[in-house]
Structure to design on (851 residues):
């Protein structure tokens, strides 16, 4: 008879039972902690609906937001709108604003601790907080009032949050009140981002001057290049290669007296040598980079290393009314910057009534921390910017005063160095004293290979170099008025493209330029005897401009724009290769009229026209004999032969051609740069954006005297460069060559500054790792963390037909529905409206008594 009694379950050991219960408890506690953290995070969300008091308002301000969170701010006066803008910036982007002011002031370590000290040490030398205070003191009363209203709005917006923004909770810190000078510091942070703060361009050219025969300075860093597509003038011509009597690399002492510094030791740079190596050179050979310690400090706080470390970028063009489908002039603008979360720009529409009863409305992008529209339209004129790479810095070689170690020579005799005792506040560590040494020309920046101190003259230090002049664009009603505003504004020098509602277009340089006497500004020079000097800033009337071009087209893309005397006025601060500008110019000349969508298509152009000749050269180099030596070369041949001629995410051939050009460039330039690098170890191919003409002449003409003997032959060099490329690929995982696409390398890495602070936090804070099309030498400039910080196309008076795209979203809060809203359209290049959409949220800001 079967046993019908239940069989007892096996006894679970006590240890296992307790372990299971403990794990369950831990999971429950973890879930509760996560839920609690998520709830706490929500306490710092901005106010979207209802009513909120705002002290200082003269009348009620209404703020509506659309599906992307873009606000439309309607107030009775400009001051009320500025106050409300500060409120919104603080609610959505307070941490971003804080980083910008601290970056310029050299106060990051106060928030991040010792890891930010290398950045603060470098920046504090400029004492930009003092510069900002002096600038504010010089502003007109109306500008001071606007800054004061904005600052009060920032503090009110921060106070209206139920909790500090999450970044401060993670850092266990509190935001400091916003001061009027902080808005000027934000502008100065853009100076640093767009011009640098070290005079590195002059330093690089100085090392070339002292380390090579003069003809090679003109070849490695020409003022004009064969790819130039200027608005005025023609492209340059690469000079013939110097003969062996000038330089012969086959001789062991080829560089002779050019090779070794007088001291017999490597030169002493400002901060030390940049890290090098095959992988770094291949990935960033033409992008440069700051020194290791400073770069690490920036990375630690989630900031971009600045213009030298990123691909050069920004496009803008304008078409007059004859060239548009609807008869209105058009402006297209995509400013390329380091990409991070949140995005650089904050979209807004601002509306108020002027004192004379005239209605005003601004649409476009603002910069959190500043109460002005940076780019966009006021209904009568529309404008955009690209970095001009005008020269607004000079390295000044100082001469020691005999018998006075703490003095230097000037045209008026010896002067003692000024010493400013700065203190770097350090969170979690001891404060660090910093002796800032300065001269009548600027702060002491470094010491060159001859042991001479060098100071930096920079327009950002000068009265009038930074101001709120751009605010006057709000009232500009004509092209002429807008160009005059731009030329007088104190800001980093930018190409300013503008159109008005009469169908006219124009270009000028926005920002002040130095007046140099006795030199052109390209190389470090001595001001000691007075024959070479700055005579302050040029009056705006001397800044070049171009109105109503005959063919109705204007374009800029960071390359040289003019020639002759106008080029002397602007100077050469390191122009980009003109290939991108030329591609834009040719697209604009390819047809007679354009719509807004046609211009967006040009912004998204990822055709690899610049690399076409390199692709053809690589195909020719891969002979049957070469492929027989290494079967991998046959795979390369197949991929490159059908490469598609686009920087497409799925293209293997594009990635290989691109990498091969960089590898060839590194090998070709290495022996030429050897002696200059011993003078300044920071010098690299990234300082030589115009060296393409020389490199191409070398690989085509193949002179034996300019080939390093170790290479054997030019054919061997070209194949060895391909081997360098293939050797670098396995570092990213051993896979078939067919999987090594451009998209694998060009994958978006758009991160929040604190995404690495806590394991797993990046999944919450960072944007998706999309494989992106585009690259450097084409209109669609795109790198993993560099690219179009916005794209817009607009006709003044026809804003409703305009297009706008932006990476990331309006809000800097990860729980906000607007944190990533709109990002997908930017990735896919889908046209989205320039103006805000229907209102989904309404917030009423009401006057309240000041506390």
């Amino acid at each position: 008879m079967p046993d019908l009694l239940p069989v007892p379950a096996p006894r679970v050991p006590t240890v296992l039972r307790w372990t299971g219960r403990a794990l369950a408890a831990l999971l429950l506690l973890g879930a509760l902690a996560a839920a609690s953290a998520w709830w706490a995070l929500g306490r710092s969300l901005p106010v979207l609906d209802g009513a909120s008091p705002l002290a200082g308002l003269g009348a009620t301000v209404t703020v509506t937001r659309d599906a992307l969170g873009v606000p439309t701010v309607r107030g009775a006066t400009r001051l009320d709108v500025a106050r409300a803008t500060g409120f919104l910036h603080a609610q959505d982007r307070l941490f971003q604003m804080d980083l910008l002011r601290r970056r310029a002031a050299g106060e990051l370590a106060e928030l991040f601790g010792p890891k930010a000290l290398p950045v603060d040490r470098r920046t504090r030398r400029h004492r930009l907080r003092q510069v900002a205070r002096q600038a504010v003191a010089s502003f007109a009363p109306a500008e001071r009032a606007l800054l004061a209203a904005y600052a009060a709005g920032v503090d009110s917006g921060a106070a209206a949050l139920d909790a500090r923004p999450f970044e401060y909770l993670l850092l266990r810190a509190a935001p400091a009140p916003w001061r009027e000078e902080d808005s000027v510091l934000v502008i100065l942070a853009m100076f640093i981002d767009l011009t640098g703060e070290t005079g590195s361009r002059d330093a690089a050219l100085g090392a070339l001057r002292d380390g090579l025969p003069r003809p090679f300075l003109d070849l490695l860093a020409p003022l004009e290049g064969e790819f130039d597509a200027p608005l005025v003038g023609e492209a340059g011509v690469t000079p013939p290669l110097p003969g062996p009597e000038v330089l012969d690399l086959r001789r062991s002492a080829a560089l002779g007296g050019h090779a070794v510094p007088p001291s017999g030791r490597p030169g002493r740079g400002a901060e030390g040598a940049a890290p090098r190596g095959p992988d770094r050179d291949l990935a960033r050979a033409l992008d440069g980079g700051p020194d290791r310690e400073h770069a690490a400090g920036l990375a630690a706080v989630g900031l971009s290393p600045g213009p030298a470390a990123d691909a050069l970028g920004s496009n803008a063009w304008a078409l007059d009314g004859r060239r548009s489908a609807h008869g209105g002039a058009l402006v297209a603008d995509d400013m390329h910057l380091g990409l991070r979360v949140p995005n650089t720009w904050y979209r807004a529409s601002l509306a108020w009534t002027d004192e004379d009863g005239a209605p005003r409305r601004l649409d476009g992008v603002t910069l959190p921390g500043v109460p002005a529209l940076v780019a966009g339209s006021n209904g009568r004129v529309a404008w955009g910017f690209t970095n001009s790479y005008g020269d607004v810095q000079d390295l000044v070689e100082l001469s020691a005063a005999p018998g006075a170690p703490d003095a230097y020579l000037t045209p008026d005799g010896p002067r003692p160095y000024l010493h400013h005792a700065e203190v770097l506040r350090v969170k979690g560590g001891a404060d660090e004293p910093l002796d800032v040494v300065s001269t009548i020309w600027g702060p002491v920046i470094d010491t060159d290979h001859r042991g001479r101190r060098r100071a930096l003259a920079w327009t950002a230090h000068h009265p009038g170099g930074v101001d709120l002049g751009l605010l006057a664009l709000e009232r500009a009603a004509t092209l002429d008025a807008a160009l005059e505003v731009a030329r007088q504004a104190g800001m980093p020098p930018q190409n300013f493209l503008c159109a008005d509602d009469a169908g006219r277009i124009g270009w000028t340089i926005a920002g002040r330029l130095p007046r140099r006497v006795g030199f052109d500004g390209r190389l470090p020079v001595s001001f000691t005897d007075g024959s070479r000097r700055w005579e302050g800033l040029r009056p705006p009337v001397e800044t070049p401009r171009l109105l109503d071009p005959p063919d109705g087209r204007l374009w800029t893309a960071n390359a040289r724009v003019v020639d002759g005397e106008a080029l002397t006025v602007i100077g050469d601060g390191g122009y980009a290769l003109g290939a991108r500008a030329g591609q834009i110019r040719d697209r604009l000349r390819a047809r007679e009229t354009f719509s807004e969508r046609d211009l967006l298509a040009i912004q998204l152009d990822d055709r690899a026209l610049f690399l076409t000749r390199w692709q053809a050269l690589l195909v020719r180099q891969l002979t049957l004999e070469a492929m027989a030596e290494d079967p991998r070369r046959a795979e390369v041949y197949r991929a490159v032969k059908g490469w598609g001629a686009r920087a497409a995410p799925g293209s293997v051939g594009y990635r290989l051609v691109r990498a091969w050009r960089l590898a060839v460039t590194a090998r070709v330039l290495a022996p030429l740069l050897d002696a200059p690098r011993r003078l300044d170890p920071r010098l690299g191919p990234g300082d030589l954006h115009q060296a393409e003409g020389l490199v191409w002449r070398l690989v085509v003409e193949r002179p034996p005297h300019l080939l390093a003997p170790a290479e054997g032959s030019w054919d061997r060099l070209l194949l060895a460069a391909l081997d360098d490329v293939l050797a670098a690929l396995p570092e990213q995982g051993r896979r078939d060559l067919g999987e090594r696409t451009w998209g694998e390398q060009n994958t978006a890495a758009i991160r929040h500054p604190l995404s690495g602070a806590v394991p797993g936090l990046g999944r919450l804070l960072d944007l998706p790792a999309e494989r992106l099309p585009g690259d450097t030498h084409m209109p669609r400039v795109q790198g993993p963390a560099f690219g179009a910080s916005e794209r817009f196309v607009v006709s003044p008076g026809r804003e409703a037909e305009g297009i706008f795209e932006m990476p990331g979203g309006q809000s800097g809060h990860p729980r906000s529905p607007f944190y990533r809203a709109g990002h997908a359209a930017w990735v896919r290049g889908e046209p989205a409206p320039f103006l805000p959409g229907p209102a989904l949220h309404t917030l009423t800001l009401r006057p309240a008594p000041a506390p």
